[in-house]
Structure formats: C-alpha cells, structure tokens
Amino acid sequence: MLDEPEQAMAFLAEMRARVTDPSAAHTFDALAATFDMNAGDPRRAVEVAAPVLASSSAPELAIAWAAATATLASARLGRFGDVGPLANRGLSAQHPGLLRFTIGLGEITTSLMTETVMRAQRRARTFMEFSGLQEPGRAIGEVLLARTLMASGELATAIALLREAAAA
C-alpha cells in the first residue's frame, strides 16, 4: 500500500469489479481483507474475510490470506476464542508461506492477553526455529519474539532483536 492506502484500496476494488471468476474474486476479497486490516479496520477485515473462509470454491492462497488476516484481526479485536480455529485454517492451507507469521502474531497476541508471557515466548521461539537462518522468516520471527520480550520487561534483549530484524 506504500503510504497510499486509499489509492491501493481503490485500485483493488476496481480490479475486483472486473473479475467474474469466483476463484479470482475470492483471492481479491482475501487481499482486500488484508488491506482493511493494514489500514486499521480489523472489524471490516474480519467481515471481508468471512465469506472467503466460508466458500468451498476459494483457492488455497485465498484461504491462507483470509485466515491469516482474520486471525490477527480477531486477536486485535479481543475475539480470542476465534483465533485458534482461524489459525488452524490458515496453517492447513496448502502453502501458507510467510502468512504463517501473520497467524503467529495473532496467536502470540492472544497468548499475551489470555495466558502467560512465557507461553507466548515459547510460541514465538517456534517461529524462529521454523525459519532457521532463512530471511525474511528469521527477521519476522525476531520481531515476534521481541514483542513477547517487551511484554516481560526484557527491553534490552528486545531492542537487540529488533535491530537485527531491521538490518535484515
């Protein structure tokens, strides 16, 4: 969206209006849900993602995108009970790719709010282990872990991780 969210959303809506294939429409809708979340409207993001997730004809990429968006948006809205099933749906998509980190942020946010910081840290560390040394996964894993470290007051360690992630 590159600092022009209104233009990006208008362009996406224009492209979506031209599409007649249901599979492609679901992909555009899933992307629109992501745009809504990134533009600061998590309620709208969940609303737009829901029909994609309910469809039996949505392609795997659209499912992964919609589920990742709905997972994080639900966590941000405090709908913590929705996070687990949405996360599972996204992770079970054929190739969730880097979307697994968006899902992870939703799971970690939920853990921080409903469980313990230590449990959230364990979850964040699984993302770092998963990505190994491969970028950008490693950097994203560092950001997730830093979020949990800030919550536990380990600011110096969090700052060091965020600097590493920013450099990557």
List the SSEs and their pairings.
Blueprint: H1 5-18, H2 22-38, H3 42-54, H4 60-77, H5 80-91, H6 99-114, H7 117-131, H8 137-151, H9 155-167
Helix pairs in contact: 1-2, 2-3, 2-4, 3-4, 4-5, 4-6, 5-6, 6-7, 6-8, 7-8, 8-9
Name the structural class: mainly alpha
Rg estimate, integer Å: 16 Å
Please trace the helix and strand order, writing H or E for each element: HHHHHHHHH
Question: Low-confidence runs (pLDDT<50, min 5 residues)?
Answer: none
Mean pLDDT: 90
Largest sheet: none
Q: How many alpha or pi helices? A: 9
How much β-strand is present in the residues?
under 5%
Span of the ends, CA to CA: 21 Å
Features:
mainly alpha, single chain, 168 residues, globular, 79% helix
Short description:
The protein is mainly alpha-helical.
Describe the structure.
Helix 4 (60-77) runs parallel beside helix 6 and helix 5 (80-91) packs antiparallel against helix 6. The protein is mainly α and 168 residues long. It is built from nine helices and no strands. It has helices at residues 5-18, 22-38, 42-54, 60-77, 80-91, 99-114, 117-131, 137-151, 155-167. Helices cover 79% and strands 0% of the residues. The model has no long low-confidence stretch (mean pLDDT 90).
